[in-house]
Every structure is written in C-alpha cells, then in structure tokens.
Amino acid sequence: MTLFDENGYDETTVDDIAARAGVSRSTFFRHYRSKEDAIFPDHDALLTRIDARLRASTAGTAIVAITDAVRIVLAHYVDDAEVSLRRYRLVRKVPALRDREIASVARYQRLFREFVGAWLGDSPDAGLRAELMAASVVAAHNQVLRGWLRAGGAYDPSGPLDHALGYVIATFRQLEQPQDSEQVVVATFSRAASPQAVMAAIQQHLDARPG
Fold it and tell me: Is the keyword Transcription assigned to this protein (predicted)?
C-alpha cells in the first residue's frame, strides 16, 4: 500500500513489492497470484469464517447467523482501519480494482444465497426469496461500510449496521417463522356498539367461513 501511495498503482511492479518486502519474486508468487491479490488478501479467510458461522446455525437461528456473519465482515475492516481506508482510497482511483472488489462482493452474496436457499428448502419461491435476502444483507453491510470509509473511519459503525440489519430482519422475519396462511379478519364497529354485540358479530362471521 505504501508503494502504491508513493508511485501509483500502475507504476508499481511485483518486483518493486518483493524488493520492499525483502523477499524474492518467486516468494511473492507463492503467496499471491498478482499484485491485485496483495490488496485483497483476506477474502478467502473471511468467507471461510462466514461459512463456518452459517453452518453452525439451525433453521430457528438462521437470521441471527446471517447478521452475525455480516458483523464479522464489518469488524474485519474496522479492526484494520488504516489499511481499509488506504485500500478504499486506492480502489476509488483504479477501475481494475473496482471490478475486483465487485467480484469479491458477489462471492459473499453467493454464499448467503446458497445458505438461505438450503434453509428454505422446497418452500414456495425459495430461490427468489434466497436471492432477495442475500442481496439485502450485502446491500445493508456495504451501505454502512461505505459511510464509515467516506467519513475516514471517524466513528463506530456497529450501531448503524444494527440499524440497517433491523430493516432486513423486519422484512424477512417471516422466512424464519412462516405465518399462518389463513385469512385475517378486520372489522370496524361504531363506538356505540356494546362488547357483546362486537363479539357476537365476530363469532357470526367466523361461523360463516367456508369449510
């Protein structure tokens, strides 16, 4: 990151990086396939941690597991804030790195989609609902992360993340605890109606239901 700051991304070569790190070119390529990988070296490890957290859940705790997984990702950026901020500034300037970042985001979304899809099983629209939930989770995380990065890491983003995830949970809570498919009865009455008259009218309506 220091070399990229000093010389520019395109102007910095693998040989430059190896020399600054005090290793050979071959040693560099034993760790990274390219200099792009040296900027994004942590996604494989993060995806492994997320996969382990999701697999440790049950159908009753699936949404909790997903939100925990998102917090793991955000904490990784916050715990190494200096590198995260420098990487953010660099990625904004280099189109090839932006494309790489988009591809990395897709890997997280695919992992969430596969987990939710397995959780929903053969329920109606399982594939569609899994895709929508995965996209919503990733969007919530990315919106909070971008806000924190743009602010220079000046605040704790855990509160905003909880707030954003609240929207996701409220939207998809019914996937964890499916609602009764029976109709809901909504009735209105005059204020002058007695409690007995209200109950009698509701009972009459329920007794008239087909089947």
Answer: no
CA 4 to chain centre: 29
**pLDDT tens digits, 110-157:** 999 999 999 888 888 999 999 999 999 999 999 999 999 999 999 999
Count of CB atoms situated within 10 Å of the CB of 29: 13
Structure confidence at residue 70 as a pLDDT band (50, 70, 90)? very high
Indicate the burial class of 1 (C-beta count within 10 angstroms; 0-12, 13-18, 19 or more): middle
Q: Under 8 Å CB-to-CB from 103, ≥6 apart: which residues?
A: none
CA-based nearest residue to 118, from 103, 133, 139: 133
**Residue 199 parent element (H or E):** helix 195-207
Nearest of 192, 191, 5 to residue 88 by alpha carbon: 5
Helical segments of 80-183, H only: 81-93, 95-120, 126-150, 158-176
Identify residue 138 by its one-letter amino acid code.
Answer: V
Q: What sign results for the dihedral spanned by CA atoms 174, 176, 180, 181?
A: positive
Taking the CA atoms of residue 189, residue 190, residue 192 and residue 198 in that order, the dihedral angle to the nearest 10 degrees is -10
Written as six digits, the tokens of 130 are: 């899994």
Distances, alpha carbon 37 to alpha carbons 44, 94, 119, in Å:
11, 14, 33
pTM for the full predicted model: 0.77
CA distance 24 to 125: 53
